[in-house]
Amino acid sequence: MRAVAGSSGYEEEAVVLVGQYESITFEQVHRDVLHLLPTDPCRVLDIGAGSGRDAAALARRGHHVTAVEPTDALRQQAQILHAGLPIEWVDDALPELTLVRREGRSFDLLLLTAVWMHLAPDERIRAMEHVASLLASGGRVFLSLRHGPVPNGRRMFNVSAQETFELGLKHGLIETFHSEREDMLGRDGVRWSFLCLSKP
Ligand SMILES: C[S@@+](CC[C@H](N)C(=O)[O-])C[C@H]1O[C@@H](n2cnc3c(N)ncnc32)[C@H](O)[C@@H]1O
Known about the structure:
The chain has 200 residues and is α/β, with parallel strands linked by helices. The chain has seven helices and seven strands.
């Protein structure tokens, strides 16, 4: 098995985590940014897609969805769970996204839901460069950051919304939305930032 930056702990807990991720809806998770979601069918890249909850919801809304998930057990369960939907699954990982970038494609919406804080500072710098290059003009990035205690066995960093906006700006991405809120699953001490960055 290859080592993927930030994915420690996920393979072992995949069954429990899929149940947890699917216990809430795309609309509940992304309620703060739903007004920024394109209504016409567009090209979506869900990076660190986990159980495929968001990829599935967006495919049901008519979007063309590519889902990147490096943890085999999560990706395989997600593919079974959402087998009826036209989601393209890719075994790839931040910061390089080698396979996705190799095809020279671009996307109108990138999702980085609960993923970014798994990357170390130097990985975030590389990853933002690639995120910006994969985004089409007029496209948006929805990104959420988890704050609070680090679960056992996971690798997580303390990442602020401000740092993320500053990094995005270096690659031409504009701060479009920012909110802070409680944990959707009610975990003690856990809070979230929801961000949207746009490419002019
Ligand atoms: C907290 S889960 C979030 C899953 C899903 N986005 C959601 O909101 O339910 C974090 C996900 O990021 C994935 N991940 C961890 N490191 C990654 C990396 N370097 N590149 C891409 N995905 C990664 C994990 O395998 C896991 O599926």
